[in-house]
Amino acid sequence: MLKPIIKYISILTVMFFVILFAASKSVAKNKDARIEWFRDAGFGLFIHWGPVSQIGKEISWPLVGASKEFRDKYFSLYKTFNPTKFNPEEWARLAKQAGMRYILFTTQHFNGFNMFDTALSNYNIMNTPYGKDVSAQVAKAFRDEGIAIGWYYGVENWHYYYETGAPEINGRYNSTQDLKKFKKPYGTQNLTLLEYELGQMKELLTKYGDIDVMWYDHSAKSAEPLKKRVWELNPDIVVIRSEIPTPEQRIPKAPIKGAWETCMTMGRQWSYKPNDNYKSAEELIDNLVKIRAGGGNYLLNIGPKPNGELPAPQVEILKKIGSWNAVNGEAIYRVRGWVITNEDNIWFTKKRDANILYAIALEWPGKQLTIKSLRNTKVLSVKMLGLNKEMKWQQSNEGLIIETSDERPSKYAYTFKIVYEHLH
Fold this sequence. Notes:
There is one protein chain. By secondary structure, the chain is an alpha/beta fold. It has two domains: 303 residues, Glycosidases (TIM Barrel); 86 residues, Immunoglobulin-like (Sandwich). Helices cover 31% and strands 20% of the residues. The chain contains ten helices and 15 strands. The strands form three sheets. Strands 5-4-3-2-1-7-6 form a seven-stranded parallel sheet, sandwiched between helices. A five-stranded antiparallel sheet has the order 8-9-10-15-12, with helices on one face. A three-stranded antiparallel sheet has the order 11-14-13, with no helix packed on it. Strand 13 and strand 14 form a beta hairpin. Helix 4 crosses helix 5, helix 4 runs parallel beside helix 10 and helix 7 crosses helix 8.
């Protein structure tokens, strides 16, 4: 009699732990509702900044294969970093004006320098001549403007290599595929690299108010324990890179199913580069339209100067994007891709929860715009964003034919709002 009872108890115990394990696994991912919030936001600001801005080189990457002399110089740059003209309130106002709904600030890039007040390392912003927590100031300024806060965190830490003499790969700093392998003590608390970065996740998630987004660079495998930790601290956080596709400096040729995000520089470099070659505001707006038509988010980067100011061309670009978004933003937020992304130079977004289609012509269509895909769809009304009046239109075997006026409500990319009954 006793054996069947013991067997039954054993089975129940196994089932309990299987269910518990499954439950714990199910929690460790982005929540569907939060992904939808992220996709609704659509447009974000990336900020790459740090002591390297003093020499105008790219952030972290010059360390790969560099000489000892260069590395010594690079890892000492923090000693002269003093951004006395840093004005996060101005950055936040510009981002809001541009229509950005969330930011990602580089709290630590691969160079290992912490742009926040950490108790786990002396290699941080508090030990510069500036001596103030810029991440705290960024979080407050952008939150005050209603912009969601996100942290970029470089999982690879090349300062750890530099300080501990950890073995490199072929004489180069390279990807740390498994943080557990790096056992040499590091930082003020003599922690392993994994312990150190887990500790910093707690600092970043508990010292700066509500954090909405985390962005882990570079190896998805090495980010796994960090993602688990942040979801334990805040299950509502959206983890972007390492969880969803994040094409860099390019727009996918075909739409990606579900959430994705393209990150892109305004010029040629992520970090500040004097006399950088910037893209035009028109090109960046076209990118925004194409990315949103493909169902993705656009994360556009700025690189502040070493004194904390934004380069004048970046300010001008943000203002021009803002002027366009003031007229056309309805076609950018809370939208998804349509059944097709585009007809030639006309790109489409659809309101997530309504039968509203936005046809965005990247060039002025002339006196008439024809949308072939709407030949069999019952259209109810057509307006042009910025004019707020019904356009003259008709449907035929050729499609929906819209007569335009001479009025152009924006300088680039013209949006036609089409309300329809149903699709055929």
